[in-house]
Amino acid sequence: MTGNANQLGVHALVFTAGWSEPECRSAVEACAEAGFDLIEIPLLNPRSVDVSMTVQVLREFGRSATCSLGLSLETDISSEDPDAVRRGSALLLDAVAVARDVGATYLGGVIYSAMAKYTRGPTSAGRRNCVDTLRAVAARAAESGITVGLEAVNRYESNLINTGDAACALIDEIGASNVVLHLDSYHMNIEEGDLAAAIRRARHHLGYFHIGESNRGYLGTGTVEFQAIFNTLADIEYDGTITFESFSSAVISPEFAGALAVWRNLWTDGRDLAAHARSFIKGGLDVAQRRTLSPS
Ligand code: MN
């Protein structure tokens, strides 16, 4: 049985691009107003986050946080360039510290390679750098009770982990019990032949789930078969966090829009989008749960 067991979250970039006090307050307020339990805070520049302000605002609205980021080519731990690996390792350790200090128990994203379109495949030496670095990051995270999630993303955003299976193989190689698989329906829709089967195969490693539409806009306006996903999550008794993610250049910076290839706006009002997403996800989870309670 799932549904009521899952914490529901929303990505901060649905509401705001920055993390000044007014931006943080407005985003966390909007998160609470839409009925989400937690907000996912992007840590692209961890040291820029005002930790005590963030803790204060989260407390004010009674919400918790998760944290995520994507590495860049400059901080690519799957590179053969030791300087890039060193910079990436330092960035990830900074991110772990900030996650710990804002009270988050989850740090995930494209933290195993750059979040970028590669023009060649990964190398075995680069993969070794990635595994060694993530093993050290996971050990540091474990000291603070933080789970580390590897988000499988589509082929245009990484060359290393494009599927749940590929993520599970890397997780087994790292061999740390606090490293989990992070799936995202937007990316799965591009890379997985059968979303339900992919979730079932990954059930022992799955620890975080992003809900995003195929066009990254309003849920229900694209081609992702969400009810099949909710049903499968219920079937495997997934009790982890489910977070809504969507991007619009109405909110995010031109640089980030470029990195994510957001070339047109599918929405302008993040609060309306979030309220719709919350009821869409809750409704789908409730249907899935009723189905397991009264099989027909
Ligand atoms: Mn995602």
Low-pLDDT regions: none
Strand order of the largest sheet: 1-2-3-4-5-6-7-8
Q: What is the averaged pLDDT score?
A: 96
- Ligands: manganese (II) ion
Tell me the helix content.
40-55%
Question: What's the N-to-C terminus distance?
Answer: 16 Å
Please state roughly what percent of the residues sit in beta strands, choosing from under 5%, 5-15%, 15-25%, 25-35%, 35-45% or over 45%: 15-25%
The rounded Rg comes to 18 Å
Biggest sheet layout: 8 strands, parallel, barrel
Please state the structural category. Answer: alpha/beta
Number of strands: 8
Morphology:
globular
Order of helices and strands: EHEHEHEHEHEHHEHEHH
- With helices defined by DSSP (H or I, 4 residues minimum), what is the helix count? 10
Structure description:
Helices cover 44% and strands 16% of the residues. With 296 residues, the chain is an alpha/beta fold. Helix 8 (226-235) links the parallel strand 7 (206-211) and strand 8. Helix 1 runs parallel beside helix 2, helix 3 packs parallel to helix 4 and helix 8 (226-235) crosses helix 10. The protein is globular and about 50 Å long. The model has no long low-confidence stretch (mean pLDDT 96). Bound molecules: manganese (II) ion. Manganese (II) ion is lined by residues 151, 184, 210, 245.
